[in-house]
């Protein structure tokens, strides 16, 4: 309860939550407000925003409603961001927990692999994965998750290293608990909070990665994604710059919301760490 | 000397990492649909199965995968990255041609981000919780959330299309033949927008880290001593605080080198710069897997080198690191 109160005392955190709720609201209401396929032809191409009440945000190069694509795009961004984060955090926690708990050569090998993933530029690995496995919604989401796990792994490992010799763990070991139970039931619940807070950063980066991939037309072209729309708008940038500008603002707001909420949670849950 | 051997040891320790990356990506690319010969046949406009078989034997693609891997690693030791069927040149040549724009872009983006991150971080830390701090921190947060390619496009709209101050893309003006200083100025004007675009997110990160690290150092005892000696505030900041506060920033350069290289893929595509990042993108689109693997190798090498330099710099800033070893 204290943490909740601390969270709502920070104006930035509250703003982040409001923005996030708006984006989630857009994702939920997309089906009711724009029941038609957002990628279907809706009217004349390149209608400027606020000139036609039927297309509040105008239409793109091929006459598709931008507002509909923005609303449906919120679903895609949140879906890819959320699932990719889940994948990244799951792999990261597993690797970090095993490395931190067992130490020794297991730790050595796992950390070498983590280092390899960190040495290879994220986006280059993402390109390789897309080149190999193609670019459907599923493969892109998994690929974004796969390139994002090293940071949560390091964080989990650090937590496990400091927790594994604590008294409550030693007590458990003396009672004869098996390793799996010690890791999952005793240490993990204590190690998880900072990792969950860090998930905000992972999700922000995941959304940016997917939008960059979509902008390069290497993501799934059959879904209404904000990055896709920016890539399309690039062809008419000279005059109809709004086609690219509008979805960019949507990405900016979503990433801002996710990072503000993550930051707010971090400050609320670790009040001692908060910088003056 | 001690510094060098310390950093050298870290450099040696990264060789297994490099091998791990190469083996991993090599095996990964075996899963990709189509190989070099398929790409070449498509380039030639098709051919019969006998030609394909002949070509596969010529490039050693008929061997088992472990043999191919061993061949590849052995060729790498001799700095032979294989042959790019798409460009009709050795991969090493293609990459070397594309390296300078990327290195220039990364250096200028890094300098921009580092310098302004430092300046704004110091300003924010000195006016902590007052309006300059709030303003700088807010702008930093917005920069952090801005997709770089989108910022690049908007910068093109404003500075190239409406104001017509700067070129919208390319590395240099091909129409005019310039030499000497004019050529340098021309390339510089082409690099302003890409550097700003690539550096933006790093500017946001650096200023945040710089602010936090300044606040931490400002509270240490030796700063209080310096104040008690009667030094003025500017001198305290420049001579005492800055050098210590810089340490986390330098660490960050090494950590972010890979992210920056990845970011240049997108930025180079937006501004059609003929760099390594754009080559990576093109080789994915054209399924030029040999080149892609070469880029993976070179970019990992680049990241390792940046970390090596960072280690040296770090030891230079903090002599205790070299002394402890």
TrEMBL record, chain A:
This protein's record includes keyword Repeat: no
UniProt xrefs under PROSITE patterns: ABC_TM1
Record flagged with keyword Protein transport: yes
Protein name: ABC transporter permease
Pfam families for the chain: BPD_transp_1, OppC_N
UniProt domain ABC transmembrane type-1: residue ranges: 74-262
Subcellular location: Cell membrane
Membrane-traversing stretches: 12-34, 78-102, 123-147, 195-218, 239-261
InterPro entries the UniProt entry points to: BP-dependent_transpt_permease, MetI-like, MetI-like_sf, OppC_N
Domain of life where this protein originates: Bacteria
Keywords: Cell membrane, Membrane, Peptide transport, Protein transport, Transmembrane, Transmembrane helix, Transport
Family affiliation: Belongs to the binding-protein-dependent transport system permease family.
Membrane topology: Multi-pass membrane protein
TrEMBL record, chain B:
Domain ABC transmembrane type-1 stretches: 99-314
Recorded topology in the membrane: Multi-pass membrane protein
Transmembrane segments: 103-123, 135-163, 187-207, 245-271, 291-315
Transmembrane helix among keywords: yes
Keyword tags: Cell membrane, Membrane, Transmembrane, Transmembrane helix, Transport
DNA damage is among the record's keywords: no
Gene3D superfamilies linked: MetI-like
InterPro entries: MetI-like, MetI-like_sf
Compartments, record wording: Cell membrane
Family: Belongs to the binding-protein-dependent transport system permease family.
PANTHER family attached to this UniProt entry: ABC TRANSPORTER PERMEASE PROTEIN, DIPEPTIDE TRANSPORT SYSTEM PERMEASE PROTEIN DPPB-RELATED
Name of this chain's protein: ABC transporter permease
Organism: Bradyrhizobium denitrificans
Highest classification ranks of the organism: Bacteria, Pseudomonadati, Pseudomonadota, Alphaproteobacteria, Hyphomicrobiales
């Amino acid at each position: 309860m204290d943490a909740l109160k601390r969270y709502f005392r920070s104006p930035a955190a509250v703003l982040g939550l409001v923005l996030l709720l708006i984006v989630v609201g857009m994702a939920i209401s997309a089906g009711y407000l724009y029941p038609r396929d957002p990628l279907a032809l809706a009217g004349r191409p390149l209608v400027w925003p606020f000139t036609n009440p039927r297309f509040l945000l105008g239409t793109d190069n091929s006459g598709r409603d931008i507002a509909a694509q923005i609303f449906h795009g919120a679903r895609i961004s949140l879906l890819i961001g959320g699932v990719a984060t889940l994948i990244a955090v799951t792999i990261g926690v597993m690797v970090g927990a095993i490395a931190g708990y067992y130490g020794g050569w297991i730790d050595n090998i796992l950390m070498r692999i983590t280092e390899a993933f960190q040495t290879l530029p994220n986006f280059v690995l993402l390109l390789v994965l897309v080149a190999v496995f193609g670019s459907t919604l599923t493969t892109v989401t998994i690929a974004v998750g796969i390139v994002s796990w090293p940071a949560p792994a390091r964080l989990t490992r650090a937590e496990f290293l400091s927790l594994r010799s604590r008294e409550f763990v030693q007590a458990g070991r003396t009672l004869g608990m098996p390793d799996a139970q010690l890791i999952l039931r005793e240490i993990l619940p204590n190690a998880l909070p900072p990792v969950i807070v860090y998930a905000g950063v992972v999700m922000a980066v995941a959304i940016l990665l997917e939008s960059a991939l979509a902008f390069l037309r290497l993501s799934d072209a059959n879904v209404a994604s904000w990055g896709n729309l920016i890539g399309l708008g690039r062809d008419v940038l000279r005059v109809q710059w709004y086609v690219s500008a509008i979805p960019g603002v949507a990405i900016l707001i979503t990433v801002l919301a996710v990072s503000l909420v993550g930051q707010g949670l971090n400050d609320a849950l670790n009040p001692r760490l908060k910088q003056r | 000397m001690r510094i060098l051997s310390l950093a050298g040891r870290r450099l040696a320790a990264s060789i297994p990492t490099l091998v791990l990356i190469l083996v991993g990506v090599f095996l990964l690319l075996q899963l990709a649909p189509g190989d070099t010969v398929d790409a070449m046949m498509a380039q030639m406009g098709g051919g019969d199965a006998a030609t394909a078989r002949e070509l596969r034997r010529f490039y050693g693609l008929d061997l088992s995968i472990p043999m191919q891997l061993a061949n590849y690693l052995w060729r790498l030791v001799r700095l032979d990255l294989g042959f790019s069927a798409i460009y009709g040149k050795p991969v090493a040549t293609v990459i070397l041609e594309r390296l300078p724009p990327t290195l220039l872009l990364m250096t200028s983006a890094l300098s921009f981000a580092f310098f302004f991150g430092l300046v704004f971080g110091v300003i924010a830390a000195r006016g902590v919780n007052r309006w300059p701090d709030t303003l700088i921190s807010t702008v930093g947060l917005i920069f952090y959330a801005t997709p770089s390619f989108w910022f690049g496009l908007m910068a093109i709209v404003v500075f190239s299309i409406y104001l017509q101050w700067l070129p919208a893309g390319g590395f240099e003006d091909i129409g005019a033949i310039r030499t000497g200083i004019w050529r340098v100025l021309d390339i510089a004007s082409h690099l302003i927008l890409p550097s700003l675009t690539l550096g933006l997110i790093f500017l946001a990160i650096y200023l945040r880290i710089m602010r936090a690290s300044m606040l931490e150092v400002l509270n240490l005892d030796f700063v209080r001593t310096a104040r008690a000696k009667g030094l003025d505030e500017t001198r305290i900041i420049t001579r005492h605080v800055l050098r210590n506060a810089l340490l986390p920033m330098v660490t960050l350069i090494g950590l972010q080198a890979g992210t920056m290289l990845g970011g240049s893929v997108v930025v180079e595509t937006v501004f059609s710069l003929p760099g390594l990042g754009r080559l990576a993108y093109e080789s994915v689109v054209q399924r030029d897997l040999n080149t892609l693997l070469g880029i993976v190798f070179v970019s990992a090498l680049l990241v390792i080198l940046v970390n090596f330099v960072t280690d040296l710099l770090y030891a230079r800033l903090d002599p205790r690191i070299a002394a402890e070893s």
